[in-house]
Amino acid sequence: MTQIKWPPGLNKDDLVGWGNFGFVCLDSSSGTVVKSPHDEEHDEAIRIEMAIYKRFEESGSHPGLLRYLGPCGSGLRLEFASNYGLRKHIQENGDEITGDQRLRWCLQIADTLAFVHSKGVVHGDLQWANIFLDGNMNAKVGDFAGSSLDGHPLMVRVTASHRSPGSLLLAQADIFALGSTLFEVTCGQSPYDGQTDKEIKDLFEKSLFPETKHLGPIGNIITGCWKGKYKTAYEVCQDIKAIQLPGKPPSSTF
User: Fold this and answer.
1) Start and end of every Protein kinase domain (predicted)?
2) pLDDT digit string (tens) for 112-171?
3) Domain span at residue 155?
4) Considering the chain, what is the average pLDDT of its residues?
């Protein structure tokens, strides 16, 4: 077994996350996290992620992304999302989360994805497990280690419940995954939860998707993402902004 190379000044006691290509340690002294490759075999994925964050930073980045704070050892230093993962938060606090808050997260995720696509990046693994919450409960899209930059192949295996039947290197594949992610945020579970990858793949290839009518307007948007209604994530944003919930609609994205 390959020995883990911990970031400078950090060790196993600082570990807060483990992914396909790397692991994440919390640097308590700076209030940031360091993402490092598991081993040399995964160096390239982390280098791609660093290149993607640099591309974002060249354009001023986006409030829906974790702030990139530069390289650290063989990895990269990022903003620490102090409320951790969106999936965990929804699963643990689902009954207390308002519809307005869920809609706000949906809008933030779609708005961020529109920015990501405008910079030549296809995320490839958009799902609630790769979205984080900062101290103000804003959604932050993360984990670009397996993403496509300027048309290069994805390095990540796309989750079945989010996998488009079409080309995975097009923005439309991310928009399909966005539909599944909005479903997760709204319903608290993944599409076709409990079914096998093959069963889900077969259903999607037949254009058979989970029922969303009971979700109201956001359900129509989710189905629209799955059925190819939207050419851009920006169009999804506009439709989410148009939703009127009881009370008042979200006044701003972030």
Assistant:
1) 10-254
2) 999 999 999 999 999 999 999 999 999 999 999 999 999 999 999 999 999 999 999 999
3) 86-241
4) 94
Residue 244 has pLDDT above 70, yes or no: no
Q: Tokens representing 53?
A: 């964050």
Composition of the chain by helix, strand, coil, percent to 5: 40, 15, 45
Q: What angle do CA 143, 252, 118 make, to 5 degrees?
A: 45
Residue in the structure block whose two tokens are 């949906």 = 106
- C-alpha 72/C-alpha 189 separation (Å) is 35
Given 24, 46, 79, the domain boundary residue is: 79
Please report, for residues 127, 133, 141, the alpha-carbon distance to residue 63 in angstroms, rounded to integers and kept in the order given. Answer: 18, 12, 10
Residues in CB range of 235: below 8 A, 6 or more apart: none
- Residues 30-80 pLDDT 10s: 999 999 999 888 999 999 999 999 999 999 999 999 999 999 999 999 999
Same domain? 44 vs 108: no
Let me know whether 99 and 212 are in one domain: yes
The two three-digit tokens of residue 160, written as one number = 């079945």
138 inside domain: yes
Q: How confident is the model at residue 202 (pLDDT cuts 50, 70, 90)?
A: very high
Number of domains, the chain? 2
Share of the chain above pLDDT 90, in %: 90
Burial of 77-89, coded b for 16+ CB within 10 Å and e otherwise, reads: bbbbbeeebbbeb
The residue out of 57, 79, 101 marking a domain boundary is: 79
CA–CA separation, 138 vs 121, rounded Å?
22
